[in-house]
Amino acid sequence: MPSSAYSRSEHLRSLWPWLPLWTVVALLAIFSHGPMPLYSTRTLAVAWEMWNHGHWLVPHINGQPYSEKVPLLFWLIHAGWFVFGVNDIWPRVLEVIFGGTQLVLLSTLAHRLFPNRPWVAKGAPWMLLALGYAFLFGTQIMYEVLLAVWVLAALLCLTPKAGRDEPRWLLFGLCIGAGLMTKGPVMFLHIAFPWLLGPLWSDWANSNRARWYGRGVLAMLLGGAMLLAWALPAGFSGGEAYRQRLFFTQTAGRVVDAFDHARPFWWYLPMIPALLFPFSGWPRAWAALITLRRPLEPGLRFCLCWLLPILVAFSLISGKQLYYPLPEFAGATLLLAGAIAVLREKRPALADNPWLGTWPLGVGGILFGVLLFLLPVLVSHDMMHGEYVDNSSHYSRFFSVVFILLGAFLLLRGRGEMRRLAIAGLIGTLTLNTLFTLTMWQNFDLRPSAHLLGAADTEGRAIGYLGNYEGQFHFEGRLTRPIERLSEGDALQAFARIHPDGLIVARPEKLEATDLRYALLVQPFRSSWVVIWPAASLAELRAGHIPPEPPHPTRVYQVDNWRFRSLQ
Predict the structure, then answer these.
(1) Residue 541 in 3-state DSSP?
(2) DSSP labels for 360-394?
(3) Fewest C-beta atoms under 10 Å: which of 71, 112, 222, 231?
(4) What pLDDT, in 10s, does the model give residues 84-136?
(5) Beta-sheet strand order (sheet of 463-466)
(6) What does the alpha-carbon distance between residue 560 and residue 72 come to, in Å, rounded to a whole number?
(7) Which of 131, 133, 104, 113 is nearest to 305 (CA)?
(8) Residue 418 clears pLDDT 50, i.e. is over it
(9) Other Cβ atoms closer than 10 A to 144
(10) How far apart are CA 211 and CA 540, in angstroms?
(11) Cα–Cα distance for residue pair 547/558, rounded to 1 Å
(12) Where does residue 260 rank: exposed (0-12), middle (13-18), buried (19+ CB within 10 A)?
């Protein structure tokens, strides 16, 4: 066999342990329930509206240009819809493809940065697939997983490969452009620091600084030109208000004084252990990081040049969400894998110390399994209560066995400790997702409301929404017209006068007797309710009058025992 063919064969075999496992588990998780409001449903609503109305250049939501996002993810969804028709299966499969691509890129990046430590390339993907938050968020139809693909691809272009130390600048620029077309200017932030600090980790950059920075700037300009090639015609097509938001308000508003998700400077720091779980609970990982000493090898310096500055940068940005640094999760696992590889070589006593093993997580898994087993007793004796607790108690004993077995699995000693932890983390996350599907998904499933509104839209009846509508009904209901945003008072009364046969969607925190008597439909949603009214009936009630009795009783959907008791 030729050496190149042999190398490819070996590489494919090295993917086998983790890529098929992750793919199967991800597919099970992402298809265990429908698209999640509001993240996935909003993305699908934009893709549907672009598709239905032929807005191929400018994303739209609820009849208005959508300046918050750029169109690459929507175009990829449309590509599948051209082949398979409009559905929510293809967008979910896309997310699984993105996640698998991310794992492959991480393995390749680890091989480039740690050429003398093959364990890093094998271990880093295992670590990334086991991160609970990253896995669960990766099952949302959102932009960050695709963005992570372009971030890793761009950083891979910067790293040396066999026979070539200079970065692939053209590919670097193209990957930057693809990232910009996925999430906008934040792509620059994700890749800026490894490039700016290149001389600290790259010998080639240190020896060729002028070329490194000069060609890097040209690559950045190429990426920016790709974004402008879309943004300029889109800005003129979308109108003055859209153009203003697209070029100025939207990005600046999140960076300086967030109009949404404003958090304090330190907000990310206490979240890091949760984001890196289960490896944040593995003593050997902490020992590996704490015992790192200078001089650090290039791969570790690369990780630090990437992660530390961007943590500071994201902390300085006013708007914060846990998924904003999702591309950096790969960098965190790369750092952990590199540190553990160094520990295995330079401190074998610590690398084999049983007290630094996975036993704390094993004990925690067993205790959690015992808690799940006892949950029905605790609920029946009024020792624990809550909507999630009460609903979970119906199935918790079946799932307790899984966590007890996973805990025992983590108490095992010997080779493959990290892999055991990764498998346990992945299976544990899938188990929790399945428990959520069986117990709480009914409080997130908006299909009854969306289908009712879709039927009304087909009949030409106007629909209003009290509050801030975020597209959660448009895709599932295949709505073709906007939902009018309303407020209590004059706006509601005017809507009812103009559209006497229209419908109004309300989101009360608690239900009143009138909601169950005069409304068309009531269903739980998150911690509140969705109530769909005939516009005339709601206007009468708000004006202090008694509306006529409805021809049919209110349809009440998916009310669990906890919600039922709250209605009494």
Answers:
(1) helix
(2) HHHHHHHHHHHHHHHHHHHHHTTSS--HHHHHHTT
(3) 222
(4) 999 999 999 999 999 999 999 999 999 999 999 999 999 999 999 999 999 99
(5) 484-486, 463-466, 503-506, 528-534, 521-525, 555-556
(6) 40
(7) 113
(8) yes
(9) 24
(10) 72
(11) 26
(12) exposed
What sign does the dihedral 144-148-150-151 (CA atoms) show?
positive
Write the pLDDT tens digit of every residue in 149-168. 999 999 999 999 888 899 99
Residues 6+ apart with CB under 8 A from 184: 69, 70, 227, 250, 251
Question: DSSP H helical segments within 464-560, as ranges?
Answer: 474-477, 490-498, 515-518, 535-542
pLDDT value at residue 559: 72
Least confident interval from 77-86, 137-146, 236-245: 236-245
Q: Is the pLDDT of residue 6 over 50?
A: no
Phi and psi dihedrals of 61, rounded to 5? Answer: -140, 130
Under DSSP, is residue 545 helix (H, G, I), strand (E, B) or coil?
coil
* 14 pLDDT higher than 70: no
pLDDT digit string (tens) for 265-299?
889 999 999 999 999 999 999 999 999 998 999 99
H or E stretch at 523: strand 521-525
pLDDT for position 568? 52
| Residue 368 to residues 129, 283, 403, Cα–Cα distance (Å) | 22, 19, 7
Q: What is the model's pLDDT at position 254?
A: 52
Q: Quick check: 50 pLDDT over 60? A: yes
The pLDDT of residue 216 = 97
Helices (H), 258-322: 272-275, 283-290, 298-316
Could you tell me if 136 and 360 are in contact, meaning their C-beta atoms sit under 8 angstroms apart?
Answer: no
Instruction: Check: CB of residue 135 under 8 Å from CB of residue 26.
Output: yes
Sign of CA dihedral 253, 258, 264, 266: negative
Neighbours of 451 (CB within 10 A): 15
User: Are 49 and 126 contacting, i.e. CB atoms less than 8 angstroms apart?
Assistant: no
94: CB partners within 8 A, 6+ apart: 76, 77, 80, 141
Both tokens assigned to 278: 């289960």
Q: CA dihedral defined by 247, 248, 249, 255, rounded to 10 degrees?
A: 110
The yes-or-no verdict on residue 62 having pLDDT over 60 is: yes
CA 212 from chain center: how many Å? 33
Token look-up 């300046």 returns 67
* Consecutive H or E run containing 484: strand 484-486
Tell me how far the alpha carbon of residue 217 is from its chain's centroid: 30
Name the pTM for this structure. 0.93
Angle, helix 89-113 to helix 72-84, in steps of 10 degrees:
130
